[in-house]
Each structure stands twice: as C-alpha cells, then as structure tokens.
Design goal:
Oligomer: single chain
Cofactor: Mg(2+)
GO molecular function: succinate-CoA ligase (ADP-forming) activity
EC number: 6.2.1.5
CATH architecture of the largest domain: 3-Layer(aba) Sandwich
CATH superfamily of the largest domain: Succinyl-CoA synthetase domains
Keywords: ATP-binding, Ligase, Magnesium, Metal-binding, Nucleotide-binding, Tricarboxylic acid cycle
CATH topology of the largest domain: Rossmann fold
Shape: elongated
Catalytic activity: succinate + ATP + CoA = succinyl-CoA + ADP + phosphate; GTP + succinate + CoA = succinyl-CoA + GDP + phosphate
Number of helices: 13
Largest sheet: 6 strands, antiparallel
Distance between the termini: 38 Å
Mean pLDDT: 91
Structural class: alpha+beta
Radius of gyration: 25 Å
C-alpha cells in the first residue's frame, strides 16, 4: 500500500524527523488558506499522486510548455494560479505511463533555501533478509540517471533487523554523504529516526529524495515516498486509514475485497492461478509462446466458487483481455470446486473470449468431467506447456 507525500511526512514527524512546514489542500481555496498560514515569502505547490517524477511531469491539459507537478511560488497569487492549473488535471510522469493520474490533492509547503541535495532510501533486501539503506551524495530529480551512469556514487549499508540500527550504521551514512561537523551528527540522528520509522511501520520502501542541507546548516526531508507491507497492515489501522483508493486501479481494489492478489499488466492473456510461484511460471510460459499476460492473479490456496467467479469478472473487466488461461494445482484447493467456479463464472459473465483450463491435483478427474458436461466452450489442457500453446492458438484463431 502506498500513501501520499504529505501523509508520509506526518508519520515521519512523529519519529522526530525534520520536515518543512506544509499543509495539504483539496481545493484552490484551501491551498490559498494554507499558504497564508505558512511563513513565506516562498511556497512550494506540490501535486499529490502515487507516482514519482512529479517535478519533471507534464499536465495533459496544459500543453508541453507547462510547468510540472512541483512548483515554486513567490506569492499567494502564484499559489492560487498553480492550484487552479493542477487540481483536476492529469499529470503524466515517467512512472504513471501515458495515461497519467488526475491530481485531486495538493501539498503547500514553506520554501527552503537549499545548499545541497542528498538521497537516502530503505528497502527490504529479500536476498539477505535484511534492511538495505541506500545513500548517495547525488540527490534530486536525476537519481535514476546517477544509478545508471555513476553507480559508484551510491552506497548500500545493510542492517540486520535482529541487531537493529547501531551507531556504526549512522557513521557509515554520514561518511557516504561526505558530511562533517554538526551535519555529520545530524545525518547519524536522522538515519536512525528513519530506520526506526521503517521498522515500526512495517514499511516495504521508504525513499527520501531529496534529503537537503539548508543554507543555515540543517538536514530536512524535502520529499518522501513510503509504501507498506500489505501483510502487516492489520497491525496499523492508522496507516490503513490513509489509503486513497482514487489512486489505485479499480480492479485491484475489487480484488482486495475477495482477498485476491491481482496486478494489471499490459498483455492480452488473462491469467487465473493458485500460488504466486505458479502464477509467475504461467506468465513466463505465455510469453515463451509469443503473447503477453494481461494480469497477475493469485486466487490463493483456499478459493471458493465465489472467489473464482469474482476473479473471472475482474479479469474480464480489462478490455485488453483476448483470452483466459486458468492454471490450478489442487492441493488444499480441490479441482472440482475450481471447475464449479469456472462454470458459474463463465455463465454469469456470458464469456465471449477463449478459455483454456489446466487442472491438476485433488479431484482432477471430477473437475474435468464437470467442465466437459457444462456445455461451455472450455478447452482442457493436460499440462502447463499444452495450456499455454492452446490459449495462444485459440486467441489467434478468434482474431
């Protein structure tokens, strides 16, 4: 789960992290009122969407010469003008794709006199089961280019969660950022605060870009992105309350209601599989056969007829889907239950695209028998390779 920048900063402030004064706004009037409450005379008006690259982004409705989603305002009037241009319009960034995202919220912050920009982030390193703290002296909008062209300017510090954040980790961060004196001490403190927030909130990712050194010698978090481990959200109802469903894919929201793991992709073969590993293998073999998966959808190990029906509806809600491949290994889940769900769903949604089903495991023969007697145009497959070849052939034939 992702949250907005202003929400992430409010959470970090509870851990003592220094952030510039700022106020969220949903309307032009609220943006103006927010600016009047800030010291000024400089203000920053920031579009709030769940995507990076806002500063370099462009608004679809404003033309190629318009400014991006992060703007420096020198007066209250400019804050008002920028708010009018941003709210309700579609911001396209390198992370949103061409569709972009509509801006429904703004964050008006106090201007900061920046002397230097740095980069700091934390992610879970699944290879080692530890937290990777990534820092660079080259913070700002071009950090992706730094990672690509000059990776030696990026330092990774690995922290064992059983040991926790130790003083030497803070010193390593300050050394990597080439900070001395009081700034060195501040870097040690802020990196510890950020680590504590990362662990306490069950974050999957915490990115500070940029972490800035101000002209008066302080370190402040100027921008931040934060995402959370969805498996741990039950421990954080306060974080769940920050969820903005308008920023999420409607199909993914619907899937979450049925405890389905669904992610939309750019292909044309819809997939319904039980088990994340099997789902990945299914997507790979579809691509191997010359087409691309339209989604990742894991129905889990204990799917019911209701869940399978919901999964079908979600897959078919994507107009790009030209065919569906169901790949189920029945262990805990019985193949006859899956077959019943497939039949019920196909009848309910008036299935109009080719459907190939590969079942294996508990009650597999009963499941195949149910599908064969259903009277529906369901193509049965014997194994995964056979299933992928058949769905590709069926889609090409239908075209």
């Amino acid at each position: 789960m992702n949250i907005h920048e202003y929400q992430a900063k409010e959470l970090l402030a509870k851990f003592g992290v220094g952030i510039p004064a700022g106020i969220p706004a949903l309307t032009v009037e609220e943006a103006v009122a927010a600016a009047k409450r800030l010291p000024g005379p400089l203000y920053v008006v920031k579009a709030q969407i769940h995507a990076g690259g806002r500063g370099k982004g462009k608004f679809k409705e404003l033309g190629p010469d318009a400014k991006g989603g992060v703007r420096l305002a020198k007066s209250i009037d400019e804050v008002e003008a920028f708010a009018k241009e941003m709210l309700g319009n579609t911001l396209v960034t390198i992370q949103t794709g061409e569709a972009g995202k509509q801006v429904n919220r703004l964050y008006v912050t106090d201007g900061v006199d920046i002397a230097k920009e740095y980069y700091l982030s934390m992610v879970v390193d699944r290879a080692t089961g530890r937290v990777a703290l990534i820092v660079s002296t080259e913070g700002g909008m071009d950090i992706e280019e730094v990672a690509h062209s000059t990776p030696e300017k990026i330092t990774t510090i690995v922290i064992d969660p059983a040991e926790g954040f130790m003083p030497h980790h803070g010193r390593a961060v300050a050394f990597a950022l080439k900070l001395k004196g009081d700034l060195n001490k501040q870097a040690q403190v802020i990196s510890k605060q950020l680590y504590e927030a990362f662990v306490a909130l069950d974050c999957a990712m915490l990115e500070i870009n940029p972490l800035v050194e101000t002209a008066d010698g302080n370190l402040l978090v100027l921008d931040t992105k934060m995402s959370f481990d969805s498996n741990a959200l039950y421990r954080h109802p306060d974080v769940v309350a920050l969820r903005d469903e308008t920023e999420e894919d409607p199909a993914e929201i619907e899937a979450s209601k049925y405890d389905l793991a669904y992610i939309k992709l750019d292909g044309d073969i819809g997939c319904m599989v039980n088990g994340a590993g099997l789902a990945m293998a299914t997507m790979d073999i579809i691509k191997l056969n010359g087409m691309f998966p339209a989604n990742f959808l894991d129905v889990g190990g204990g799917a019911t007829t209701e869940k399978v029906t919901a999964a079908f509806k979600i897959i078919l809600s994507d107009p790009a889907v030209k065919g569906i491949l169901v790949n189920i290994f029945g262990g805990i889940m019985k193949c006859d239950v899956i077959a019943e769900g497939i039949i019920a769903a196909a009848k309910e949604v008036n299935l109009s695209v080719p459907l190939v089903v590969r079942l294996e495991g508990t009650n597999v023969e009963l499941g195949k028998e149910l599908m064969a007697k259903s009277g529906l145009p369901i193509v049965s497959a014997d194994n995964l390779g056979d299933a992928a070849a058949k769905i590709v052939a069926e889609v090409k034939k239908a075209a």
